[in-house]
Amino acid sequence: MLRYRWRLLVWGLAVLACLGGCGKAEPSRWEAAQQSTANQPAVAEQSVEGSSFNRFFPQAERPWDIVFKQEKTGFAQASLQKDGREMAVLSVSDTVNNPDALQKYQTSGLTLDTHPRAEIGADATAVLVGDRYQVQVRSQDPEFGPADREAWLRKFNLEAIGRIR
Amino acid sequence: MSEPIYKIVDDLPSSSMTVRLLQALDWVVPGEWKNIVGFENTIREVTGQSDPAFVQRVGERAIALYNDKTQGYQRALWLYQTVDFVQGVAGFTAMLSKLGESFSFLSFLDRLTPKSDTTQAVDLGLKIVTEIVAFCKINGLPGDSIGDFVESLADYRHEALMRMGTLVCIDGLVPLGPDFIDKGLSLLDRSGVSTVEQSSRFNQIKEYIPGKNTAEQISFMQQGLEAVKGWSQNFTSSHNVTLDKIVSSLRGKLQGVEGHLDYLGAFLDMSVNYYEHTGVQSIARSLISRAAAEI
Predict the structure, then answer these.
(1) What is the pLDDT of residues B26-64, one digit of tens each?
(2) What is the pTM of this model?
(3) Which of A102, B95, B253, B279 shows its CA 20 to 30 Å from the CA of B26?
(4) How far apart are CA A75 and CA A97, in angstroms?
(5) pLDDT tens across A111-149, in order?
(6) Which domains does chain A have, with CATH numbers?
(7) Interface pTM (ipTM) of the complex?
(8) Structural domain that includes position B64
(9) A89, closest residue in chain B (CA to CA)
(10) Looking at CA atoms only, how far is residue A113 from chain B in angstroms?
């Protein structure tokens, strides 16, 4: 009888432990970011308008085409297409909105001509111009490799972007 | 504060009545739509990268961008959700889920009232206006940029093209016939201000429809319909979209649908939310694409 009660007690404790702990979901890996940015501005007041970047994007000739996608404060993005197929995404962004982005240029030790350059994962190459603006080319098609990304980065008017204030 | 974007994307169903409808209509835009669900998964799909540190940085920036109301993503999402919401839908979908996969379309008909052609026309106009306004919010354009929207329609891809293709089928061709844009325009012409003001959908989103009063807002809806006319005619002919083909692709999902097309609009209103589902996917794609460029 005593043994039976002992078993009951062990099971009871196990059930209580489970009710207390097993039901709790793991905190999401995104929760901290959510808490720190809720209702906070994501762009800085001194950021330039995205429209100021547009005219310095590359000029494209057939079979290439550039279709502008997003134009927000401190950001402009376009799709680079070849015969209607998306090959890459081209973007210019103002790092005053996300100063952490500058770190990768300080540590990469790479350049494109005179501009600090960084590889972002396996599919994107970016340069920093005017110590402030990131110009990025992200491949969207396996045929569009690192050499293509560098070639299209050079087609931006990088000097003019660097002078925007 | 609205729900966090990561949770909204995490909560997208991998299987539901909406997903089955979109899968049934996949032939309309072959190879364009993939039901990408989950925030991390969407980051991996959009960027092509799976490095955990990269995914984390992109996700954190995307969350920050979404949380800044001035960036327009929250409003776009609200519009997609609201235009898809019909009162009573929660109870109806709960009933469907209780019955599981094997429910019969016919068994629900006695609970529904067919939508009138005018209601269909108003809903079609509202969904097109929602797409225009949400497109402008997501892309940073003034809310009445119909011309920019129409130009970019030719470049719509992925879930955005699936949404517009489904709109053409389910809210256009099936309820209003092959000339659904012309029919919608003339029905809106005849409906008048008071009829449109009776629409709960209109009342919920009217604040965001360009125009100083209902008459001007109806006029904006008509301009929206007129603007997509060329695109939708070209879309239906180049993709060979016909009523027969739509009905036959839905037959496997909704038994008995072919004899009851007049109920289909009301039924789908209550049982699917394809605007919201693909709208969340579009917003997540835009956010993540921008975040990946800004980190």
Answers:
(1) 999 999 999 999 999 999 999 999 999 999 999 999 999
(2) 0.89
(3) B95
(4) 9
(5) 999 999 999 988 999 999 999 999 999 999 999 999 999
(6) 51-163 (3.40.1000)
(7) 0.85
(8) 5-294
(9) B289
(10) 21
